[in-house]
Amino acid sequence: MLRELRVRNVAVIDAIEVEFEPGLNVLTGETGAGKSVLIDAILLVRGARAQTDLIRSDVEVATVEAVFEIDRRASALAVLDDAGLGRPDDLRIVIRREIARSGRHRAFVNDSAVTVGLLERLGDHLVEVHGQHEHQRLLEPGHQLDLLDRFADAEAQRERVATLAAKYRTARDALDRTRAAERDRAQREDLLRFQVSEIDAARLSAGEEETLRAELRRLRNAEKFTGGLADVQGLLADGPQAASAALGRAVQVLRALGRLDPAFETPIEALDAAAVQLDEALAALRQLRDGLVFEPGRLAEIDERLDAITRLERKYGETEDAILAFRADAAIELDRLARHEEVLAEQERLVADLRAELSAEAAALSERRQAAAERLGAQTQRELRALGMERARFDVAVEPDPGGQVTARGLDRVEFRLSTNPGEDLRPLARVASGGELSRAALALLTVLAAADPVATMIFDEVDAGIGARVAGVVADKLAALAGRRQVFCVTHLAPIAARAKHHLRVTKAVRAGRTRTAASPLTGDDRVREIARMLAGDAESASALGHARELLRGKTR
Fold this sequence. Notes:
By secondary structure, the protein is of the alpha/beta class. The protein has 19 helices and 15 strands. Strands 2-1-4-5-6-7 form a six-stranded antiparallel sheet, with helices on one face. It has a six-stranded mixed sheet with strand order 8-12-13-3-14-15. β14 and β15 form a beta hairpin. α8 (208-220) runs antiparallel to α12, α12 crosses α13 and α14 packs across α15 (435-449). It starts with a strand and ends with a helix. The model has no long low-confidence stretch (mean pLDDT 85).
């Protein structure tokens, strides 16, 4: 339930902190005092679009913070889990929204930054707001269908229909593409066969181009390689000053000196090792020289082969691997085209199976809706009559969609129909209901739907619009009954409704230091009696109004 609401720098609110209680909470006050601003603040923490014109003119940032208490079975916990936010140990969810004049708005859940989309998903599980705008939504056929499905507990079934409808559309589109491709199939097969055969004829191997280009570099620099190897051979072995001969002479000199003094033989071991390494180097040179024997015409062969590979790369890919991958994909497509009739038959079977499954699921959903529509219509009609529309008739019509196709919503369109006077036919709600009748229809429906609604907090913004004093007591009873199962928050101008509340808040507006400021105060005792009297007669000090107010308050627990 909603426990606290803190608002700073929003419209006429400088800083306000409001606490709520379980059961029925009412908010009263003069018109324009700022009650609607508090509703706007709650809508913000539910993810409503942030408007910078809500920010007080003398500041840059406005903030709204709401504290919700939940139980361990609350569906909101699954939303937190999915978002990776974890479950709060104290079972409190703190939502904060910051609106900046710069446009850089921010949102937080338990001090973790979140998206507005997450606030919307979370808000759907925490609080439901019903205002004049929501009453207008009641006239929309799509919203009426949503309400019926909620009452029928058919939302999971509708989700299955939506999933099947998406699969069916995907399979049908694939089948249409396959059928359309029939016209170009022969031409496409010829092209693919040519491409596969051209690549196969080239007998490519991975890394071949790099190997050929290395060989080409050796061929084009053959004279430099041959001359260089000859020079190195002369320096190391063949020339009069060759390193091998010099090493031999050095060893002879040291051995002669060693006969006079053994110490002079010490370097001989290192020189012998150098001679061994020199022999190894000479062997490597001979191997390189032998490798420089080139076949006549090899240079032309390499150039021709590289030209062939380059032509393939321009057509099929930048590397041998890419060309071979293209060839593999082309072969798969060629096989599929060769199996066109088989593929077409498989796709047709899939589409037929999905169509049958979708039709069966949609038909079952329709049956469920038809059965629920009868119950919803009868129960709503009883509620309307209890709300002062004694001769009202209410019906929920479930009819095939004019398009005749199964959509993500199923086969049906739903229409709420109302007759307010004897002898009048049932007509669509949008063509019948006045403002007061629409308010009562909304309240009647919400009363019936409340049992199927998991949201712990319901907020009604001026649900009493268009309702006279005679019906106000009945509306108060309905709200009190709803508050027996969940927390109800109501903005009202009617004293009978305010008197039934367990927690009464008064919103006042005052001008201080040239600025308008709004405050909200809990009312008890004589203060509450005077507020009820003001709502009854416009005079908080009228003796008759005070007496009537006390009578209403004494009867609030009936």
